[in-house]
Amino acid sequence: MSINARLNELGITLPKAAAPVASYMPVVVHGDLAYVSGQLPFVDGNLVTGRLGEDVNLDRGIAAARACGLMILAQLVEAQISLDRVQRIVKLGAFVNSVPNFTDQPKVANGTSDLMAEVFGDIGRHARSAVGVPVLPLNAAVEVDAIIAVSSA
């Protein structure tokens, strides 16, 4: 089954890929690896903002991380990398805008991790970092970047 068919089966529509907010490329391919810059969580076109443990609850944080994962996939498509070329989600880095005593960053990051497993199955399982930070660009609740192995075109 193609990944587009899998997305349809799951009822997932990818968002429009967000434009960079600074001087960087959203996706850089080197060899068989696609490096996807940190993606912010857009839900229904609106950025999810705030801090976990303050004005964003755990469920909203998990949904925001899932939205980051959808944006990672949208950036691959925008870079003209077919999702069927994905060989492995190698590593995700999740940054969670959180108060100092919030310790559920791994649970928040599961929003992205679980999405990748839903979409890609075993090749969606990956290494990961999940860290708390005091602030993110545009006051985003979560930011996730990725390293993805892809086959040649």
Automatic annotation (TrEMBL):
Please state what the protein is called: RidA family protein
List where this protein forms a coiled coil. none
Instruction: Name the domain of life this protein comes from.
Output: Bacteria
Tell me one Pfam family matched here.
YjgF_endoribonc
Task: Spell out the InterPro entries in the cross-references.
Answer: Endoribo_LPSP/chorism_mut-like, RutC-like_sf
Instruction: Domain (Endoribonuclease L-PSP/chorismate mutase-like): give its ranges.
Output: 5-142
Organism encoding this protein? Pontixanthobacter luteolus
Q: From which residue to which does the signal peptide run?
A: none
